[in-house]
Write a structure and sequence with these properties.
The complex is a heterodimer of chains A (301) and B (323). By secondary structure, chain A is an alpha/beta fold. Chain A is built from nine helices and 13 strands. Chain B is mainly α and 323 residues long. In chain B, helix 5 runs antiparallel to helix 10 and helix 10 runs antiparallel to helix 12. Classes of the chains: A alpha/beta (301), B mainly alpha (323).
């Protein structure tokens, strides 16, 4: 594989992640030689049964963990420690509790441009900058419909509002890739739906590259433009296997909630995804993997 | 009302909160009156009269030092006494400063520009409170600063953590009062020894407490701060320190108790003034009336400091309570 293709956000070549398992007394493979390519501007959702390593995959891209084997590149470079080019939205601990909503939103630009030690030396200049950041933060909050909550603390907001602030906080940095780890997992259905619609809009507006981990297949099919299924329930020619691989990689139908309910293509895809990776009693053979997306890499034998 | 955390009316809450104090006061005055009826000179349980005498004793002005005063024009001994010595009623002593050789002669006239050594006076209770609070404040200040510096850097930085963790944990296991003789031998019995015992007594547990708080900051928030372009230094101060600050203040609040213990203990052993010193001095004369006033005063000072920090936390850091 070459790294010359600049339209590639993520390129994984046989990446492996394993952890020491005290029960087994040896390393247990979680991700087993994953091959994956993600184009910029793509909204890629990752689904899979619990324990399949979706969040591990996300952490590898984020850089808070590093691969044990294989090669991972981000925009043509090996992943560094987490930096300002990667945005992250978690399910929990999404905001800084000691900062007001607007301070949370402008934290990134402020950290980026203002050295906090110099802040006291150049206080007048800093004040002017601060005012500019406040204005920018208010614009972002207006976009997420939370302008009137700008000066509250996170604990005074509902879970859905907190997640919207967290997304604004990540987006204000204009990251090259936005990573989301089950961002709507703890929300009630109504709030979750409105946030899903809002994510679709954001992606249409900004064409951001998004890597979206979720356990909700319906959510994945709705919001994303591409869905991959990670699963440990698989067999190969040489017998049983350990660790997950991408067992399905598909383009999703258009991002439209009304169509989702009516369209039979959705229900078929839903069944496909479920069959591909979610049934431990029927592990899938690598020759039957569902690799229909144009960027999908043919499965290793 | 018997259910866990069942709410009760506010007035009732206040009333039953005062009750233990009332009961102690009533029981005390009953037995005190009984003992004093049998023996009016009993010193063990002083009554109102003895307390009044004690109060008069500890609020009487006494000379605590001298100050050089240059006489300006128009000044009299009385005005100098009121201004410099802090007590016009103390002018008798000043008369002796500028005084004539014989008692019944009038004091000699003051010369403008002459320098007098004027005695400085202070109420004894004020002297003691000032001495004790200065020691407590300095000891707490040093202990808290060291704890802040070391606890934070241990929680953030692995090499510093590995260097100091075992040492501080070991230090925290030594009862600070066991160190008292060592410090007195090594540093003498001056002010610095008393300050050192307070600082040394409270710092280890505070360091370990802060260290644990820092380690409890979710790693997700730290990763997130890095993705927002923060440097390690910025994360240390703007994220971690800001987040652990309210619980740290609470740890300071809890350290006030031990700090008072070490203060009183060190003052009891060697001192010239201070609340602990006074209590142990008047103990020799069975001065229960003064001891009890001082004990109540210590309680009030402790309550005031405690309430001050608690108020600061609830008022300034509301987010920390609810999170």
């Amino acid at each position: 594989m070459t790294n010359s293709d600049t339209s590639l956000a993520v390129e994984a070549d046989g990446i492996v992640q394993r952890y020491y398992d005290t029960k087994l007394g040896r390393d247990k493979v979680v991700l087993d030689k994953i091959d994956f390519k993600l184009r910029t501007g793509e909204f890629c959702a990752v689904v899979g049964p619990s324990g399949c390593g979706k969040s591990t995959f996300l952490r590898l891209i984020l850089g808070s963990e590093s691969v044990k084997d294989g090669k991972l590149s981000l925009f043509g470079e090996p992943p560094s420690d987490p930096d300002r080019h990667r945005g992250i939205v978690y399910q929990k601990y999404s905001l800084f509790p000691h900062l007001r909503v607007i301070e949370n939103v402008i934290l990134g630009p402020e950290l980026d441009e203002v050295n906090f030690l110099m802040k006291w030396v150049w206080y007048p200049g800093f004040r002017k900058k601060h005012q500019r950041f406040i204005k920018m933060g208010e614009e972002y909050l207006e976009r997420v419909g939370l302008k009137e909550h700008a000066w509250k603390y996170p604990y005074q907001l509902s879970g859905g509002q907190q997640q919207r602030v967290a997304i604004a906080q990540a987006l204000i940095m204009k990251p090259r890739i936005l990573l989301m780890d089950e961002p709507f997992g703890a929300l009630d259905p109504g709030t979750r739906e409105s946030l899903q619609d809002w994510m679709i809009e954001i992606h249409k507006d900004t064409k951001s590259t998004i890597f979206f981990v979720t356990h909700d297949i319906e959510e994945a099919l709705l919001v994303a433009t591409r869905v991959i299924v990670l699963s440990q329930f698989r067999v190969s020619d040489s017998g049983p296997t350990e660790g997950s691989r991408i067992v399905a990689d598909m383009r999703t139908p258009p991002q439209d909630r009304d169509a989702l309910r009516a369209d039979s293509a959705y229900s078929k895809m839903m069944a496909d995804v479920l069959a591909a990776g979610f049934d431990p009693t029927k592990p899938r053979h690598s020759r039957d993997f569902l690799m229909t997306h144009p960027d999908a890499i043919p499965p290793r034998p | 009302m018997l259910r866990v955390h069942a709410p009760i009316p506010r007035t009732l809450a206040v009333f039953i909160g005062i009750m233990p104090f009332l009961i102690v006061a009533i029981v005390y005055s009953h037995f005190s009156a009984k003992r004093l009826a049998e023996n009016p000179r009993d010193k063990l349980m002083p009554g109102a009269k003895q307390f009044a005498a004690g109060w008069e004793d500890i609020t009487k002005r006494r000379a605590v030092g001298f100050i050089e005063h240059t006489v300006a024009s128009g000044e009299t001994l009385e005005s100098i006494a009121a201004k410099v010595s802090g007590d016009s009623g103390f002018s008798e002593d000043i008369k002796s400063v500028a005084g004539p050789a014989l008692d019944d002669e009038p004091p000699r006239a003051l010369v403008v520009g002459e320098t007098l050594r004027v005695p400085q006076t202070e109420r004894r209770i004020v002297t003691d409170v000032k001495a004790s609070l200065r020691r407590l404040g300095t000891g707490l200040g040093i202990g808290v600063s060291v704890a802040l510096l070391l606890g934070l850097s241990m929680g953030v930085n692995t090499p510093i953590d590995k260097t100091f963790n075992g040492f501080i944990s070991g230090l925290a296991k030594i009862p600070p009062l066991a160190l008292l003789p060592i410090i007195f031998i090594a540093m003498g019995t001056g002010e610095s020894a008393k300050i050192a015992i307070i600082a040394l007594g409270i710092a280890p547990t505070m360091i370990l407490d802060l260290y644990m708080r820092v380690r409890e900051v979710p790693s997700e928030l730290i990763t997130k701060a890095y993705t927002l372009g923060a440097s390690t230094l910025e994360i240390t101060f703007k994220v971690i320190l800001a987040m652990v600050w309210p619980p740290f203040l609470n740890a300071v609040r809890l350290a006030l108790g031990p700090a008072w213990v070490y203060l009183i203990a060190s003052e009891a052993i060697a001192s010239e003034a201070g609340l602990g010193y006074r209590i142990f001095v008047v103990q020799r004369q069975l001065g229960m009336n003064i001891i009890l006033i001082y004990v109540l005063l210590i309680m009030l000072l402790g309550l005031a400091m405690d309430a001050g920090i608690r108020y600061l936390i609830t008022w300034r850091y509301k987010w920390a309570e609810i999170r």
